[in-house]
Design a protein that fits this description.
217 residues, three-stranded antiparallel beta sheet, alpha+beta, 22% strand, 2 domains, elongated, PvuII Endonuclease, Chain A
Length: 217
């Protein structure tokens, strides 16, 4: 029987895997510039690495995240533009977080013409707790309104200014929730789109300095 994968073990193994992969020369990555292809390669390899040692439920399209039992999704992104997309469920995700934590690997890719291999040097491995996966400007703005004794009208005006994809009924419900349950500060930048566009520069900068954003490597 393999031991069960836990969130803490996942963090430790992510750190070790990043170290191993950073030293690995991979022929199939030589000349590859497509970030999606690189991300797929890295995620599959990481999952295989874990599968050899641990027992865990693997994510599928229904669950939408890589480790549904642990409520963790893996993101692999280049340092050139540290961002990725994720499914849009509700405008509330921008205020109260995605609903799951993120394990983010940020790599720098280099090619070696002599060996015809590519190497992914993992510069940052960070873990963003689900409570901190909301949008930074939205959450800090809303908290400021509350600190300034703002009321429902103020919150609704802010929601409109931020162009949150909601109708008036939902905006009213969100405003009530924000006043009774102020959001925690998130450390992602989330752009409105059919899919959320998540940007990680702030999370990388804040990793290890704020609660809920851990620097693993």
């Amino acid at each position: 029987m393999k031991p069960k994968l836990t969130r803490e073990i996942l963090k430790t193994e992510a750190q070790q895997f990043a170290q191993i992969e950073s030293a690995h020369q991979e022929a199939s990555l030589y000349g590859v510039t497509d970030g999606k292809a690189v991300g797929t390669y890295f995620e599959h390899k990481f999952r295989s690495y874990l599968r050899e040692k641990y027992d865990f439920v693997e994510g599928n399209s229904a669950s939408g995240i890589d480790f549904p039992e642990l409520e963790v999704d893996v993101k692999v992104t280049s340092i050139k533009q540290p961002q990725s997309s994720c499914p849009f469920k509700s405008a509330r995700q921008k205020i109260y977080g995605l609903g799951y934590s993120l394990l983010v690997f940020v790599y720098e890719k280099s090619d070696d013409p002599q060996t015809s291999t590519g190497t992914l040097n993992v510069l940052h491995t960070i873990f963003v707790s689900k409570e901190q996966t909301a949008d930074f400007q939205t959450t800090t703005g809303l908290r400021q309104i509350i600190e300034n004794e703002g009321n429902k009208d103020d919150v609704m005006a802010f929601i409109e200014e931020r162009r949150l994809p909601v109708d008036e009924i939902e905006a009213s419900a969100i405003a009530d929730d924000v006043l009774t349950n102020p959001p925690e500060i998130g450390y992602l930048t989330i752009s409105n789109a059919l899919q959320w566009r998540l940007q990680y520069s702030r999370a990388i900068d804040k990793a290890g300095l704020v609660v809920g954003v851990e620097r693993l490597r």
